[in-house]
Amino acid sequence: MDISKIVADQRAYFESGKTKDVAFRIACLKKLATAIKSNEPLIEAALKADLNKHRHETYLTETGIVLSEITHMIHHLKRWSRPRHAKTPIQLFAARSRVYREPHGVVLIMSPWNYPFQLAIDPLVGAIAGGNCAVVKPGSYAPETAKAIAVVIAETFDPGHVTTVLGGRAENTLLLDQHFDYIFFTGSQDVGKTVMAKAAEHLTPVSLELGGKSPCILAEGANLKLAARRIAFGKTVNAGQTCVAPDYLLIREADKAAFVGHFKDAIASFFGPDPLQNDEYPKIINQKHHTRLLGLLQGMNAVVGGTSDATKIAPTVLDGVRPEDAIMQEEIFGPILPMLTYQSIDEAIAFINRRPRPLALYLFTNQKAIERSVIDAVSFGGATLNDTLMHVASSEIGFGGVGASGMGSYHGRYSFDTFTHAKPVLKRYNWIDLDIRYHPYTKRKQAVTRAMLK
Question: Looking at the annotation, which residues are catalytic?
Answer without folding.
Answer: 209, 243
